[in-house]
Amino acid sequence: MNRIELLAPAGDLERLKTAIRYGADAVYLGGKQFSLRSRASNFDLQEIKEGVEFANQYGAKIHVTVNIVPHDEDLTGLEEYLKQLEEIGVTAVIVASVTIMEIAKRVAPKLEVHVSTQQSSTNSAAVSFYESLGVNRVVLARECSMEQIEKIVKNSNVDIEAFIHGGMCVNYSGRCTLSNWMTGRDANRGGCAQSCRWKYHVYEGDDLISDPDCLFSMSSKDLLAAEYVWRMIHAGMTSLKIEGRMKSAYYIATVVKTYRMLIDECVKSPKGLSKECINYYTREFAKAENRPTGLGFLAGLPSEDTHLYGVNGAGVTHDFLAMVLDYDELNGQMKIEVRNRFEVGCCMEVFGPEVNNQCFIVEHMMDCEGNEVMLANKPTEILYCKVPFKVHKYDMIRRGKADENFI
Amino acid sequence: MIELCVSVNQKSDLNQLVEAGATAFAMGIEDFSDRHYNKFTMNELIELRETCRHINVKLNVFVNRMFEEEELDKLKGHLMALKELNVDGIYFSDMGVFALAKELNIENKCIYDPETMVTNGKDANKMIQLGCQGVVAAKEITLEEILDMAKACDCLEILIHGHQTMSYSKRKLLSNYFRYINQPKEVENKFDLFLMESTRDEKMPIVENQYGTSIFTPYVLMSYSQIKEMIDVGIHRFRIDGMFQSEEELVDAVKNYRSVILGTKSPESACEDMKQKYPHQNYSDGYYYKKTNLTKE
Fold first, then answer.
1. Are B69 and A151 in contact (CB < 8 Å)?
2. How does pLDDT run across A311-365, given as a tens digit for each residue?
3. Is domain B3-163+217-284 in CATH 3.40.50.620, yes or no?
4. Which of A99, A129, A175 sits opposite B120 (nearest CB)?
5. Minimal C-alpha gap between A399 and chain B (Å)
6. Which residues of A351-362 are buried (b: 16+ CB within 10 A; e: fewer)?
7. How far does A197 lie from chain B, in Å, by closest CA?
8. ipTM, two decimals
């Protein structure tokens, strides 16, 4: 079995580096042009180049989304752009338009072409259509069940990728223009206003039949596929994808690290993982996951409990407190950058590429001038803090919300 | 020849529609089509084939759902039956349908109609090069863009009249909601349900069936003032959707298009006549003059 790819999103270089340090095999990002998610802080070519160079040091790959559904006005400069991506050393482009697929194959043959989930491919016949165009990989629609994914992989000759985590369109991806009509923002050109997540009255003829205290909405819970990862690996899939080019570095670190551990454990476990084991990972995700999650279509057609009606609900169990900038082994002291409020006496948890969760109680902190600090409440302030075990640059520090009143 | 294809709801429409100027019909089929008021069985389709041949109009069918892996054998069998029946066109939105049609050597029957996605001339023409008979332009493009696209693709089809599909979900959005608020309700295949966004006043039809949920534009597209410009650049395939329209309205719509094409009626008076006769309809020129290239910075 080939090593399965853990594919993480990145909205900028910091997040790209975080994802790779925390265990992603590949990162996908959007360029300034031709990409969806126009609000994600997309990369210019120089930044993509820097990303590729960084990834190369870790043996990781960079995929670039070229996934707009273009109007004629949007195609200017495309060929040159694809050639530049190839030259920079990008591994693959993720594409929705059949024209862009063809152009990429013609002008930048070293680039792999991956069919975007915007094409909503739900069966192996659709996959075979793209195979006939010469593509290397198809990202399946999020509407497939686990059983269907297994069969599609079996019946297909190109690599198959599927989402395992993050936001889900409530409609078939690419087949929704709610945002276009209601806001003038094109969902297929990076402008999606997520109008599906708004509130709606329902009428039967002229009669209002929705509940005024709980209006209709089409907001989907996020996907969390931890319990299916073992089956996905053993089905022979090529890549497992995390959604979220707009998520924070802390979120990326937590989610990537957790899937890294989970995948590594699945590979070592010929019979699958226990319920307790899955529960452990689920709790780990909750330390950064700020939206309620569900299984999407993996277990079959989603029912009402996979939708968000009343709340858009924060469920994060942990706060991100600080980033480790350096560690002085001699003095058992770390240099940190503050992100959220904490104080001497609180219980912190450190995690990082090399550190699984390790906890300690903050006993002593000082600022750059050597003054003792009892309360850290200035974001980006640099502090020095004693720590009773070894930490590393780029480790992150968090604490459970339930632990806030520790002392 | 200018083709006016009408997606019909009831068999009884046919003669009247042909008299009004329809040159082709598009039919929904049980189990294989979505977003149709009335779907025909294969047996009915066999009869319709005869009728259409007799009155010399084309018979197109919709195989426009998204299909699951387990359905591929059944889908292929269905396509073979359509080949046998020698239908004139097959509207599809799932590339799997096209791949299977190719295996059966009937790709030239295929008309790509994902109801969005076809937003530029090159993508449209690519599907023609691959063997499709026609390609339906996305609704969310402007008239100017349509006219440009026609330069690159001479088999472009335009949906000129009716409600347009805004979104297509595999989920049962209405049943789920009504169960959630503890008022379980029979909602499948109802054509009188609407959504209204809580800060707006437009009513958007929403239809749920066993294959999912579709939401439609709050307006009825009307193209009397645009059709001549489209014909002038070489577009010759037009479709009129009858899903939320009465039989009479559909016949009037077709008659007016035929008159405008023949030059026996001005576009302005065609628009005016429809608006006067059907004042409850929210007629609109849709996206013809509405660019959707805004982004939030």
1. yes
2. 654 467 898 999 999 999 999 999 999 999 999 999 999 999 998 899 999 999 9
3. no
4. A99
5. 33
6. bbbebeebebeb
7. 10
8. 0.96
